[in-house]
Amino acid sequence: MPRCLIFGYHGFNNTGAEARLMVIKEEIARVAPGLDVEVATFSPEAQQRYVSGPFVELDLRYFMLQLWGKMRAYDLLVLSEGASFTDHLSPHLLYGFSNAALAASLQGKGVVAYAVDVGVLERWHRPLARAVLNRVSLLMTRAEESRANAVKLGLRVPVVNTADPVVLMAPPAPGERQRIRCRWGLDPGQPYVVISPKDLFCWPVVARLVRDPRTCFRYPFHFSVDDQRLERQRKFEEEMALYVRELKQEWNLDPVLLAMEEVDRGPCERILEKAQCRSALLLTCDRVTPGEIMAVLEGARLLVSTRYHALVLALFAGVPLVSISHDLRCRNLMHELDESENLVEHGGGEILDHLWERTARTLRDPDPHRERIRSGARVLEEKARGNARHFRDWYRERFQGTGSRAATA
What we know:
Layout: E1 3-7, H1 15-31, E2 36-41, H2 44-47, E3 55-57, H3 63-70, E4 76-79, H4 91-105, E5 110-116, H5 126-133, E6 138-141, H6 144-152, E7 160-161, H7 174-183, E8 192-196, E9 206-207, E10 216-218, E11 221-222, H8 227-251, E12 254-259, H9 265-275, E13 281-284, H10 290-298, E14 302-305, H11 308-314, E15 321-325, H12 328-336, E16 343-345, H13 352-364, H14 367-400
Parallel strand pairs: 1-2, 1-4, 2-3, 4-5, 5-6, 6-7, 8-12, 8-14, 12-13, 14-15, 15-16
Antiparallel strand pairs: 9-11, 10-11
Helix pairs in contact: 1-14, 3-4, 4-5, 7-10, 8-9
C-alpha cells in the first residue's frame, strides 16, 4: 500500500490551514482509498481538534532536516499549505516548502502541490521556485493569478488552476448551526456583524538565532516590527474600534470579533478594549472549529475580514462581504466573486471612511451582494472539485498505471 505524508502549516490552530487539511485529507481518502495517509504536524495534541491521526511530529527548529529522513518511509508528499510558494508573508514559507518538495522528489517520491499560491516573488527567489516547481509531479493553483505567476517563471510542467479546497467544506447540519449560535449567546433577534482583523504590519516573518521576546512569533521566527510599523497598526486598530462603535450606534449591530489565528488575538482584544462595546463577542481559533465558524457566519448581516479563509468559510451562506486587503489572496477572491466594489485596499493609510461607505451601502441593499456571492461561489465550487479529480487521475497513473494524466509525474 502506498504511503502519503501531508505537510503544511499544521498544529498551530491556524483556522485556514486546518480547514484546508480537513478537506484535503477527506478528498484524498475518497478518491484514493488504497493510500495510507499520515499528517505532519508541529503539535499532535492540537491537531486532534481537526483530523484524526496517525501524525508525524515535527520540531519547528529543525523540521527541514527532519523531512529528509521522514520522507524515506513515504511514496508521496502532499503540500497542503496555500501560501507554499510565496514570500510576502515570510521567505521561510518558500524555503520550508521548497525544502520539503526537494526532500521528496530527490528521493524519487511523488510531490503534489494541492491548490496553492505562487506569488510575485522577489527576483532572487525566482530561480529557487522555478527549480523546485519543475520537480513537482502535480501543480494545482487556487487562483488564476497564481497560475499566471507560475507560468511566468518558465516552468516545464503543466499548471492546473482550480480553487481553494475550503470552498467545498461542508457546514454542520442546520439544526446544529442554530445550536452553535445559541451556545455562543447569539440571539436570533439581535443582528450582528463578524469582523476578522489581524496585524497588518508585522510581516514578513524572519528567522533570528537570538530570541527577542518583543518580536518572537515562534522561535526561531520573529515578526518584522519597528516603531513606524507599530504606529501604523495602532492607527488601524483605533479606526476599527471606531468602526465597531459606529456599527452599534448607527445600525444596532453587535460586533463579533473573530481571531482566525493565535496572532490575531492581540489585535482583536485591543480593538474591543478601545471600542468599549459591552455587547461584543470575541471568538478565538483555539475555542472554535471551522464548522462552528461557518455556523456563526451564517447568521451574520455582514462579514468584514482581513483574513482570506474567513471570507471562504462564509461563501456557503451567501453572507455579504467587505474585505480589507493587503495581499493577493483576498483581492483575487473578491474579483472572482464580482465583489471588487467591497474591497478596501490597505496600504497603510486611513481606511475608516472607505470601510464605512461600503458597509452602509451593503447593509442598505444586501440582496445584490448575496446574489453575486452565491453565483460566484457556485463557480468556485466547480473549480474546487477539480482538485480531487486531478489528484485521482495523477494517483491512478502513477501508482496503478491507469487514468488520464492531469500533469506530468
